[in-house]
Amino acid sequence: xxxxxxxxxxxxxxxxxxxxxxxxxxxxxxxxxxxxxxxxxxxxxxxxxxxxxxxxxxxxxxxxxxxxxxxxxxxxxxxxxxxxxxxxxxxxxxxxxxxxxxxxxxxxxxxxxxxxxxxxxxxxxxxxxxxxxxxxxxxxxxxxxxxxxxxxxxxxxxxxxxxxxxxxxxxxxxxxxxxxxxxxxxxxxxxxxxxxxxxxxxxxxxxxxxxxxxxxxxxxxxxxxxxxxxxxxxxxxxxxxxxxxxxxxxxxxxxxxxxxxxxxxxxxxxxxxxxxxxxxxxxxxxxxxxxxxxxxxxxxxxxxxxxxxxxxxxxxxxxxxxxxxxxxxxxxxxxxxxxxxxxxxxxxxxxxxxxxxxxxxxxxxxxxxxxxxxxxxxxx
Length: 380
Known about the structure:
The chain is α+β, with helices and mostly antiparallel strands. Helices cover 51% and strands 14% of the residues. The chain has 3 domains: 1-155, no CATH class; 157-225, no CATH class; 235-372, Roll (CBS-domain). It contains 12 helices and 11 strands. Helix 2 (39-69) crosses helix 4.
């Protein structure tokens, strides 16, 4: 169990997780329907909502399995009240690949719709879309209708929804990914504004969805712009050399002096021979002290070094890891797998400030400005 999520199991190498807010969401719906229409209607509604979100998970696995075909791993998929979120380690590089990955999710919903309508014989007409919230109607018909709506809604060209990703992939074939993302994100935000306006005169839930689309579109555009700006940079350009290190057996209370003498927020945990064991943050140590764990070793609170980078790895590789995890820092190792430094979100941000002022500047191509910047130190 990670923070606020419960892992239900692993399917094809992807951990299926459910966020606690989804359980709360389901419980609230059940209570409200029970008070309005009794226990039978409450159970029917909860079953309907549960099956819809199962379809959402299958939708996400459509994306996941297609991405895996292109060598993109997905460590986990998490079910939230607003839908499923798959944490892919990176986005497809080629527009044609993104096009297939994006369309795979809605395709799953269409297959479910066909199975229910044709094979199971649920029977379907356009008027059935109006009975989604009627507990007495056929459950199979309602699920079929919901999958049709999910497919059509996801195919709207509103980035970062699937339809918006399809639009970006088509634009990227001629304009490049960065420019295509900017255009698709702008279209998505305009759509979100219109959706939010409609929400004021109808369903307030549309306002929430519009806000999510607007923020997510902007964040995705910023993320792609960041990736584009770091394509010619290496991990060594943004790493922190020789940070204050901890030993796995150090008692937590013994690290206080190092915290006071250092301005770093993250520290590598290394052994006697320099082998990397993990990382620990200033916040982790302070939290442990407040929990009376001062006699425990650092190894009790460190984050294992599951991801390691080399100085010659691309900075984009580091960004991909940060985006698919909640890690604040990554250990950088030499050829013998010994720790040579850290790279953090903050050190990348500092480097990008330099690139904003000097877009043509790259440290590993001779830039020396980093010697005067904290967190961007070069070896002497």
